[in-house]
Amino acid sequence: MIGTPLIAGFNKFTDSLPKQGPEMPVLFVGHGSPMNGIETNEFSQYWKKLAGEIPIPKAVLVISAHWLSRGTYITAMESPKTIHDFGGFPQALFDVQYPAKGSPELAKETAGLVHSTVVGLDHDWGLDHGTWSVVRQMYPKANIPVLQLSIDYSKGGQYHYDLAKELASLRRKGVLILGSGNMVHNLRMIALPPSRDFNAAFGHDWALYMNDTFKRLILNGDHTSLIAYDRLGPEARLAIPTPEHYLPLLYTLGLQGKHDSISFFNDKAVAGSLTMTSVKITNA
């Protein structure tokens, strides 16, 4: 992973976006199968509906489970490529191109907001399926700039939660910040229901238990427990065998303000060991 580093806290760039009125919402989206990016189903239909319910963003910044790096980077190219980072799916999925523009100016401004670490400006990545499968359904015209922020896999939950807080001012500039992953994500324990329908409601007992636990902690504002997810018992270790799909949730929670309200959508377990449960944070 190659990027152009910035000096942490260096913020002499001209603001690329003016401040506006109300803060933009923040989302955590359970993205599930890449097929949700081209299928019309209950999940993708809600993503479309959601786009019509929130203000049209000036730009979208996504923290996707599928861009892991050593160090933190942000895409800074004019035209990010569409990445097909999966295998074994129909050709129609590989044919998808999502030609949203990037924003080098916003990338520089965002990097300059972060004082806790050096943020690199990346010109090699693009938009992986954790991003385009969701954003393509929300904004099919690809007329809104889209950027990605990487996940430093060498860091723990507190790092990601704290880094998110440094991005809070972007909400007042019309930037939609979206974490894309899954709260419960254990591909080794997938089991389809008798119908063989991947999107049919079906969850192992431990998956349903942890989904309910995560929701309860989110509603209670117990971010400390959610950051220390590895201490939530054996069910949590089954739900999060590796953290990359969970960490985008911590970015979303780190951006929650004291007057924000919480709601859930697409609250469903599929394939036994995945939950599509998603979070919407809005300024009350």
TrEMBL record:
Its cofactor is Zn(2+). SUPFAM superfamilies: LigB-like. This is Dioxygenase. Residues 42-258 form the Extradiol ring-cleavage dioxygenase class III enzyme subunit B domain. One of its GO terms (molecular function) is zinc ion binding. NCBIfam families: PRK10628.1. Coiled coil: none annotated. Belongs to the DODA-type extradiol aromatic ring-opening dioxygenase family. It comes from the Bacteria. Keywords: Dioxygenase, Metal-binding, Oxidoreductase, Zinc.
